[in-house]
Specification:
Length: about 90
């Protein structure tokens, strides 16, 4: 009887863990979303977008040739927060 109780608790725990991992993966910012956000903030032409590690955190770096004549580098966290933006 004890083994069945422990088994049920283990299965329930694994289910909750799997659900939380799935939620975290679904809530991560996609490359397309990062690109869209960058182009909304700085209209122009997309140069490139890629994942990068910045100060130990995985981020999206999006480079845009802006309609304002500047080259923009915009960094977003995987949670969708603006980390940094700079222009040349």
């Amino acid at each position: 009887m004890k083994n069945i109780k422990h088994f049920r608790i283990a299965v329930l725990s694994l289910g909750l863990l799997a659900a939380s991992i799935g939620f975290a993966a679904d809530s991560m910012l996609s490359k397309d979303d990062a690109t869209k956000m960058a182009l909304e903030a700085h209209p122009g032409e997309l140069i490139k977008a890629y994942k990068e590690t910045r100060r130990g955190e995985e981020v999206w770096e999006v480079q845009v040739k802006g309609d304002d004549g500047k080259k923009w580098e915009i960094y977003y966290s995987m949670a969708g927060k603006l980390v940094k933006e700079e222009s040349e």
